[in-house]
Write a structure and sequence with these properties.
The protein is of the alpha+beta class. It has helices spanning 2-41, 135-148, and strands at 52-53, 65-73, 76-84, 88-90, 111-116, 126-132, 158-167, 178-186, 191-199, 222-226, 233-235, 258-262.
């Protein structure tokens, strides 16, 4: 009897170990899937890519970045830019304003706003950026642009990748963070900007009227482009409304979380006319 009980106990232990192993394997696969989806949407970034990193400073920015090529934006050529902590890439001067204004801004400031809101990277997250001519990345960008704009002959020869990695909002009392990316690319004649939104958990900082416990309410984030005059601008639908939190589900190129624009002579293609749904909607607006 003792031998049978011992054998039964050993067999039961083996089944438990097998079950635990199966759960661990399923967990590993579950963790791997989001990681694979993330790398499919976001271009490589971070220390492994020898990125520069912005200082930990509320409303801060990078130093002036001198570009090795000319980037054409709304018909004007630029060779310097700033990566601003508050979700803006600007061409002439820093943008430390933390509450977004609706476009157009007729104050002469040309900039790209992937997600203009009150970021505080002291509380969490990092802002990375680099200029690159890496052949592997340029080939991937070229493939993407050719897929989205098949009528425009394009081979990328240069790119600038800026990534906001799990950045916190001003006044945050939580661990919420937003991860998004802006990539500028050109072949010296035609220019594109690719905006990638992987994880958006908040819309508003505390100084912009947001709830410090949720990161919602107040004056929500703005996404789009401003040429610096009163004529040329673009607001991604949902900007400065609570619906902007669902930008990870929206697109103008049928890839949820990705918006792509030709910006040398600014053109908007594939944009829906319907306003996106509000917070927590499961609808995919493409």
């Amino acid at each position: 009897m003792g031998q049978k009980c011992r054998e039964k106990s050993l067999a039961g232990a083996g089944m438990k170990l097998s079950f635990v192993f199966l759960l661990l394997m399923l967990g590993a696969l579950t963790d791997a899937q989001p990681a694979q989806e993330k790398t499919a949407l976001l271009y490589p970034y971070g220390p492994d890519q020898h990125d520069h990193k912005n200082p930990k400073l509320d409303d801060g920015s990078s130093e002036k970045v001198s570009l090795t090529v000319t980037f054409t934006f709304y018909g004007k050529e630029y060779k310097t830019l700033y990566v601003n902590n508050n979700g803006v890439i600007s061409f002439d001067s820093r943008v430390n304003q933390y509450t977004p204004d609706p476009f157009p801004l007729a104050d002469g400031r040309p900039f790209v706003a992937p997600y203009w809101a009150d970021v505080n990277n002291i509380l969490g997250g990092d802002i990375f950026y680099r200029e690159t001519t890496d052949p592997t990345l340029l080939a991937r960008i070229t493939k993407n642009i050719n897929e989205y704009f098949p009528k425009i002959p394009y081979t990328a020869t240069w790119a600038f990748v800026a990534t906001w990695d799990h950045v916190a909002y001003y006044g945050s009392t939580t661990d919420k963070g937003n991860t998004f990316q802006a990539t500028l690319t050109t072949n010296t004649k035609t220019s594109f900007i690719i905006l990638n939104y992987w994880d958006i958990q908040w819309t508003t900082g505390g100084a912009s009227g947001g709830d410090v416990e949720t990161g919602l309410g107040g004056t929500p984030a703005h996404a789009g482009f401003n040429s610096g005059d009163e004529t040329n601008f673009y607001n991604i639908p949902g900007s400065q409304t609570e619906a902007i939190i669902n930008i990870t589900k929206t697109s103008n190129v049928n890839v949820p979380g990705r918006w792509v624009f030709q910006v040398d002579d600014f053109k908007v293609t594939g944009v829906p006319t319907e306003v996106p749904k509000v917070v927590d909607s499961n609808n995919c607006w493409l």
